[in-house]
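Database export, one record per block. Field names are fixed; values are copied verbatim from the stored entry.
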Amino acid sequence: MCYYFTLLCYFGLKLSLKFSLKFRRAFMSGLCRLTVIWHFGHKHPLTTLRTKHTLLNCSFKHLHWLPVDMHIKFKIATLTYKILSAGQPTYLHHLLQQYIPLRSIRSASQQLLHIPPLRTNFSRRAFRHAAPTLWNEIPLTIRESGTLNTFKTHLKSHLFNNY
């Protein structure tokens, strides 16, 4: 078991009495343990160890969960795979376009997506721009996965290795 995760649970139990009633109920019910741990890390930053990974990051790795920003990338990439392999959902299918170079170059066989130009910094978060950008960053071996479950497994491993 991860030492930091054990330490986090110890501090969480010890300091849970200091939380408001809402946090105590959530902690005791067992439904929102991760939420309580997340709030614990933000409410009590001095109790976390000052190492490369905080207690919260260690608990994510111990539970084999991706951090929030990586989980968002995972969901976007999974949705992009579904769109490209099955064409579903149809309302998002027209937002993605294959990258077709003007000349014959090696990247023509990489199954890349065209990234539309940006007008504002805010549009960087739009699906039309975020999905192709993220898709092009994924290695070709993962993008060429045969099934959705294989894609998810390899993508999650890839995101964990890069975390």
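Remark 1: The radius of gyration is 20 Å.
Remark 2: Residues 3-62 form one domain.
End of record.
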